[in-house]
Write a structure and sequence with these properties.
Length: about 110
């Protein structure tokens, strides 16, 4: 999980949307309470990255990673960008193939 989270942060910080999408299952979901919406499937996740990472020039830094079980972890991140500064969490669940199947995102 550490490597997956590290690659996720690297691709997001590089605004490499295609690289980030390669980490997700085709039916993955990002449910972001802080924006009040869920982004479903690869096209939904593409929209999420384009709006909230590329669009706001978001740079993320991992603060901590807590393993909940073999397929789920909570990453606490420091986010900076055109919006200012926020701290948030990503509860990340992976499938048997090691791809992200769900992220529940929220800001503190």
């Amino acid at each position: 999980m550490e490597k997956l989270v590290s690659v996720f942060i690297q691709t997001a910080n590089a605004f490499d949307v295609e690289g980030a999408l390669a980490l997700f299952a085709s039916d993955a979901v990002i449910d972001d309470v802080s924006v009040g919406d869920a982004f479903v499937g690869i096209e939904g996740i593409r929209l999420y990255f384009e709006q909230f990472f590329v669009g706001y020039k978001t740079v993320s830094k991992l603060l901590s990673l807590e393993h909940l079980d073999d397929s789920t972890a909570v990453a606490r991140l420091d986010f900076t960008g055109d919006f200012g500064h926020e701290i948030g969490t990503l509860k990340i669940a992976i499938n048997a193939d090691g791809l992200i199947e769900r992220i529940d995102a929220d800001l503190e």
